[in-house]
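Case study 2.
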Amino acid sequence: MLAKPTLRAAQSYRDQVTDALVKQMSHAGIGEAERDEQLCAFWSAVQGEIARRTYHGQRI
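Prediction:
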């Protein structure tokens, strides 16, 4: 997401990834509540990694 040139591109990428993950989890028989929990955890981890990389980049 850091490599996306615009906020719109990053949002579009996020939507595409979310849709793909929802489809995969649905096909695997994972219920909506579990999907929501897993998506929240995934995007939280992504945000943490973005923050880590941004902070690390500022320290160099």
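The mean pLDDT is 91.
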